[in-house]
């Protein structure tokens, strides 16, 4: 019973899902304004549900430590994003929604989360250390994955896109399979860091958890709940989010119909929903001078979004035959190039500071400005 009481926040999205399920058609008949209000309420409920999913991902992360911990957290967020995208695509959303969402997620993760965390952490602690091997590995993997799946497709003729899509799916699976083997195998020390005051033979031999027991309230709850309970809540939360996203997609389409709102705004919304828990976790880690966790979350989420979302969306497009565009626009390609060059320079020396954080945050502000301009 105590475990059930801890999940009382889940009652909010459960109640919203039940009400929306029975009142969906009535709301749609009330017009665009009612549909938009309904979509906003559903989005809030999805965020609450995703926060509970991320909370239990953090509990599991605390138990297993890095790099497994941040991997669990980022994979749970990507699962939510893929689920929402798949549902919206099935409902006939724009063929560029998946592309814009992946692009938005990368901008949000690298420039938004990493930038703001490094800025605030740098203002509080000065230079913050991390294992520079992780930044280099993440950076080259993101560059390769985005280049293959979102830049090269611009030059692939439309009558041959199915062949290239099949290749892309295989390439992403191969890249991620090798990356996982590195992350949890012989090169796991790339993604962990021993903070000052800890004894270890080498600086990377002592893995760090996302949340430390002496600093994070979640650590106390981690002792109360079992691993099975956390997994069960995560699975239930993902299913619940899927139900909410299905209804939200219908109401949002009805509410935005004829308004001329750019697809980029919807893409940013989807990316923001899935990244909301990661933002809070990364900021807490930065303020506690745990920059390795921030790098793992921000860069790991970007890589997971590209390397996992792309093959799922490509497979859905191949199966359904619906129009699907993955090639980025010239503006998007330019922003990604600037971002990856900046992150390669900033994550090259094993320390971040407020100036480096500010450069990424300004890039994030530029991305938001361009989205509102429809670019």
Query: Shape, please?
Result: globular
The total of beta strands comes to: 2
Q: Biggest sheet, in brief?
A: 2 strands, antiparallel
| Coarse structural class | mainly alpha
Along the chain, the helix and strand elements come as: HHHHHEHHHHHHHEH
User: How many angstroms separate the termini?
Assistant: 51 Å
Q: How much strand? A: under 5%
Mean pLDDT: 81
Architecture overview:
By secondary structure, this protein is mainly alpha-helical. 75% of the residues lie in helices and 1% in strands. It is built from 13 helices and two strands. It has a two-stranded antiparallel ribbon with strand order 1-2. Helix 5 (97-125) packs parallel to helix 10. The longest helix has 33 residues, at 32-64. It is globular and about 60 Å long. The model is unreliable at 198-224 (pLDDT under 50).
